[in-house]
Please model this.
Amino acid sequence: MTMLQPLFSHQFGGTIWRMEIDELTDILLLEIRNSDDKQVSFASLSLTTGQLYFEGFTTEERWLTGLEAVYDGVALLHYYKHEGSPEHKGIVAIGAQDATALWSNYSHAFDHLSTNGPIVYDTSLQPKKPMLADMITGRPMRSYQPADAPLPNSIAVPANAPARDFVAGILPLEPYGNIVHSLDYNNYRIVSLHTLKNGALQQHLYIMEDPGVVYTDLLNTNIQKLQPEAFVLHKNVLVYIKNKTEIIVLAL
Model:
């Protein structure tokens, strides 16, 4: 039985708040939030080679900004209307490999990424009138049509399963809260679970291949509540976050 090893890992100077994967280029875009400095930055990596294209990229807005989507080598960022509001305003497009400024539009907001390109809308108009925009220039091309369906992707996320669904003894540790996040891929079963140790929660990741564990990592320690799912699978690549600040990638 061969033990798996990470393809690469990278530590960042803040909490990895959001990540998006370019379906065509396998580029991983990250939104990094440092609450102490009230600073948001962005980073970009290749999921195939581990190359760090850039990190520490910031916009003119320090805090009220975030990541929308990435596709075909273009990353879309946004601003928030005001602090405490989830409502987005404005779109800023940058190169996903070099952070080169491509275009910006402060009167439009992003709706979704379709099979034909980004769907946007003018925030000053009510009711909302979605439009198809050009990814490279940001120029509105036409009104939204039913053919502009959300773009499918190759991302698989784990399902929540009660511990009783697993054969007795198959899980390496007894899960706290009776909840396990689980995903099967090829001959692997990938699970994350929480345990209680000395009054504090820990979150663990295991990759199992009959007859045993071929990879394990301790994701979080001394946490106060159950964490959301710890990993995603993109094509044949497992991506997970450790201690909220480190990205780790394995090829399966």
Observations:
- The chain has a mean pLDDT of 94.
- Residues 8-143 form a domain with the Methylamine Dehydrogenase; Chain H fold (CATH 2.130.10.10).
- The chain has two domains: 8-143, 155-234.
